[in-house]
């Protein structure tokens, strides 16, 4: 067991927390926070797991950098959409319409 | 490609191209549309006659290509194909003439004629299909292209009938597809072959083959209106008369019956089918359908519905004929494919004339129509007597040959069915004839239209007279070389000589 | 040993801030905690010997995302339809089921 | 009540998910396949044109990822400005009058600009690079914006759009230049690798900052909308 | 030559995204026409090259896997590249006329469109797990942007929901990639396959495959993860709906299929395969049932996508531990299903857009009388429907036939029943629409007649879907051995 693996396992826990938030919370900004937390968990696993075996590895680090930029792009897009949605409808969750009582995106 | 390869493609494409052309023309282009339509019908008749001649002299028309891995698309003309193809080519021409007159001044004619030609194209495809896969292809296209014709009038009743029609035929199609796919996965691609493929099939798959046969008959039986799958046909009579005449009396129901003939003769083979014990139950079912539908027909007050039940009953003659598994009975069944076609189309043409000219739909309105429309009524009478089986008309030939065939294979009970059916036919046709000629008519008809000196439009009058004449001719000259009977004998001869 | 202690504490802090960011009653506070989470992540990346990611996380993950979200919260927070949200938002429950 | 049950159910499912995931990680950690990638990477570093391995991976070995990733960023920017109001920048409501912020600005902005420059320059051989520098630059912009400094180039117009795609287009051109020489897409000419990467990084920095900033300022919302298809309006 | 073609294929969409961003809508349209021409020619050229000389690996930047990113240019990939070229150009041409050029935000339609196209090409050709992730995100974000473009609250709700689902799916996929990299130390699919060929399958990465496929199934809207799809596809503008239904959902399915065929034998299990197939079957039934219940035309078409997507997932049970020939039949069937559904669904959405434009309402019962006055668009809709109902001679029928053969050949006859039931159910919801259009409306022609170019495009697509059945053999033979894993790096 190296400290790398510890972080990878912490990443697994973060994934769980983030997933719960994404599925259960209804406020859209909170969902977005949950998405980012889950993303962080994935990144930790991505770097921690291979480094546990072979020491610092620049390839997954580069991947995570790419991943972070993609995540910020997605987050920013989501924020724009959410703000416009709020502006048009006055709502901050997707549950507005009758018939869709579940908060999840599924 | 050689001419032998091109001919079936021509036969198929003529109606298809006509259909596309009709759709491309504007709704208001009556003259151009009619010329395209009639021109295509004549051309097709010529092509089919050439092919009949060729097949008679042993030319092999055929073309095929691989459509999917392990599956070929085959068009091929054998004697049986040409019987069905000839029937539909002749009747297409007559029905087109009739329909031009019938639909004068009504809306949506482009749609009607476009889909009508498409139906005929798929009928031709069914006739020329060289294997079960190709057969199924056109069988489903026929289903689809008939739907717009059934709901043509757009009324609530028509839409409901369309729905019933679809539920029956699409379900039947699905069952048929399952059966064909299953058979394909068991024994590979099956082209239609005289004598069939399954004579020495592995005994291990016998149970599967029996099940597949049941599925095949169920799938095909929907279109052939075999009891208990006949429910859609009387409802579909809401369609315009030319549709009922060509499609629901001839093309669609015959497609089903034709398919059963193909399955029994050219896929399973008569020998294998009867060895598997499949034909006896089929003949019982056909016999029951004959009697049941004739009985039901008696109580129908609507003329077209009565004719529809009559169709259900008559189509089962074909199935009965081949299910008896004797060559003579088979000749009787096959010849009925033609005979019933011309007789029934005569009756439907006449029913359409009564409706279009006098506004008559119900049988109790027909009193005295014989004086008002003598030509139409004469044709109707000939057709009805043919159905009953009065000599020397076409229907008599069928029953005679089939009866002798049944005796030849020691199935005496069939005679009872034939006699019973003739009696029932008489019970539901004779009162109509009585009303036509011997009852005094009322002064006014429900909706009368006049054409000067003529009883009705010549477009409407000549087709039934011609077909009625054919009923007489094919009965009287049954023993000649080119009669339907002779052709049916040729088919059976080629089948059993394998 | 100190390393292990440090790593352990960091991991615990990460999990705690993550949970707090998701389930804190107040949305504004949630975002602030999320920024803290981002900074902790940056430290974690340093511990994972990934200084590039650490820099990026600090600048992008914590910094920009945080600002973006804070800005969004200030716009969404207290304008219209507060009553509407009250019935729908689990903010009011504030439970932390994880 | 139903809600509480559902919450419990989802919570249990998520805990189970974490547990299974952790178990998998544990199993993989105990039974590693022999990856040869790190060795391969160090063998090829000399041909990459830069000294820092992460930069080498990002901008040379796996540059296609980076190219597409900038594309993703540009998409987000496009979607952002497609919804923004045109005359939002002088919105007085947005201007903060916090003296602390002013003070911060006076000191921070130059400092941050320097930091961004350093990060960019460092990327070749040390941690740092276009993303970090771009992010810092964007953060500077955000500060300026909060401080009410007008930044007219962020008004949705040709200039903004040009800025959005500048880095992306330069990268793309560099990618296709090699094809003319008969090489693969994205292959840099051997003797120009380092300068090309530097140029790409610099313009990327600018563009990344632009996109992030555009997304930040595009938040004020344009009211106009399309009717739904088939809506009689 | 191949070099130029590949570079053109990768470069054109990205470059056109940049160019169209700098112009307004009308100029963007003209520029797009040129781009479509280039892209179609390049795709065709590449397809011909591969058809003649076979597939190859293309090393981007001159760095081969595992260090660099390799593109896998095989028959299947180029077929999908060509399919994309056909469908996307149709949608692009249609959109150029269909979309209101006076709304200022519509200029952003073109760059998003081109980015979507480049993402699709990246996914078809991708041979690198992480690169596929980036490609997926490129697709998702541009698709979400297109749905949201100028949208009202409903469109925004749909697009946010879509975005969240897509992001969650991508994260699950990325998590799987992380585990795969941890286990195998490489990101190249071929590399992992080569490793698996030489070693016994390890226990850990089974979850990785499960995660990736679950994430991709979410992005493909497999039942029960389908709920984001109908609102997004129903509310987007018709050309966008067409792109989304025809191509975007296929991209994630394509990756899932490639992963399954590469790793499924060693990392998957029979239970998982049957489970996925079961969900697919449920999707067919449930999606069709819901399609029957919809009152809006485009919602019917959108739910039909949910049902049709269900068929695709029959690939999983029909290729797991079955004989080589059955597996091949299933793969060919699914490939044909993807192609024919793409063509038919695009035609259907475009035709639906025309119909809505004509009758001025999106409700089905507003279609009464359409069959008399607007036969052309209705005809396109109907022809596309033939393929969706998988009736002959359409490509859908060819696909169904192969799948029937595969399910009967592998003894899994229950999938045959699903296939047949699905065909009947799709007839149920489609004939509802035809039926409405045949109802006679006593009024005269009060419909708006869209321009001919709008009407012809869906017709061309529908005829292609219909004719696919006749050329299936040729199409499949170009794909020689679909999904073949030849030549490890």
TrEMBL record, chain A:
Coiled coil: none annotated. It is an enzyme of class 1 (oxidoreductase). Its main location: membrane. Keywords: Cell membrane, Membrane, Oxidoreductase, Transmembrane, Transmembrane helix. It holds the Pfam family Oxidored_q2. InterPro entries: CPA3_antiporter_subunitC, NUOK/Mnh_C1-like. It is found in: Cell membrane. Its EC number is 1.6.5.11. One of its GO terms (molecular function) is oxidoreductase activity. The keyword Oxidoreductase applies. The chain crosses the membrane at residues 6-25, 32-50, 62-82. Belongs to the CPA3 antiporters (TC 2.A.63) subunit C family. This is NADH-quinone oxidoreductase subunit K. It comes from Marinobacter salexigens.
TrEMBL record, chain C:
InterPro entries: MrpA_C/MbhD. It is found in: Cell membrane. Residues 86-98 have a biased composition (Basic and acidic residues). The keyword Protein biosynthesis does not apply. Pfam families: MbhD. Residues 77-98 are annotated as: Disordered. The keyword Signal does not apply. It is a multi-pass membrane protein. Keywords: Cell membrane, Membrane, Transmembrane, Transmembrane helix. Residues 13-77 form the MrpA C-terminal/MbhD domain. The chain crosses the membrane at residues 6-23, 30-48, 54-76. Its main location: membrane. This is DUF4040 domain-containing protein.
From TrEMBL, chain D:
It comes from the Bacteria. InterPro entries: CPA3_antiporter_subunitB, MnhB. The keyword Signal applies. It is a multi-pass membrane protein. Residues 104-211 form the Na+/H+ antiporter MnhB subunit-related protein domain. Its main location: membrane. This is Sodium:proton antiporter. It comes from Marinobacter salexigens.
UniProtKB/TrEMBL annotation, chain E:
InterPro entries: CPA3_Na-H_Antiporter_D, ND/Mrp_TM. Keywords: Cell membrane, Membrane, Transmembrane, Transmembrane helix. Pfam families: Proton_antipo_M (PF00361). It comes from the Bacteria. Residues 127-422 form the NADH:quinone oxidoreductase/Mrp antiporter transmembrane domain. It is found in: Cell membrane; Membrane. The chain crosses the membrane at residues 6-27, 34-56, 76-96, 108-126, 132-150, 162-184, 204-222, 242-261, 267-289, 301-322, 342-361, 373-393, 413-434, 454-472. It is a multi-pass membrane protein. PANTHER family: NA(+)_H(+) ANTIPORTER SUBUNIT D1, NADH DEHYDROGENASE. Belongs to the CPA3 antiporters (TC 2.A.63) subunit D family. This is Oxidoreductase. It comes from Marinobacter salexigens.
